[in-house]
Amino acid sequence: MGAARAGAEQGGAGAERAGAGRAASEADSAERATAGGAERATDEALRALAEPRRRAILRLVASGELAAGEIAAAFDVTRTAVSQHLTVLRNAGLLTERREGTRRLYRARPEGLTGLRRFLDDMWASSLDVARRLVEAEEGITDDEEHASRAG
Length: 152
What we know:
Blueprint: H1 2-49, H2 52-60, E1 66-67, H3 68-73, H4 79-91, E2 95-100, E3 103-108, H5 114-139, H6 143-151
Helix pairs in contact: 1-4, 1-5, 2-4
């Protein structure tokens, strides 16, 4: 019975390890899903902003809330076309829609651009780092010399 009990205890420890492994795997999956979700949101924002009229609509509602009719009046296209543009911008998380009676009011969501802003900031930082390394290579500056000159 002692051997059976020891085996059960070891099995219990193995189950705990397996459970911990599953929890870590689920956490990794959740992190990837969040990263994937952020990347999808950035892609949607880029697609939405690729169309010049949508950028113009976003500029119109950047400083305040406007009714769909007011937005449509600013463009030489049908209300249906403007409505489709508003839907794309809303689905991309760049606009909020509020209903007041029969009117639909739209306002820009600056936080909808967060993922795109982060993407551009990362690209810009990376480009600046490459440019810095190229200049340092041309000047013959090594990382050790650079750190020494900053410390001194």
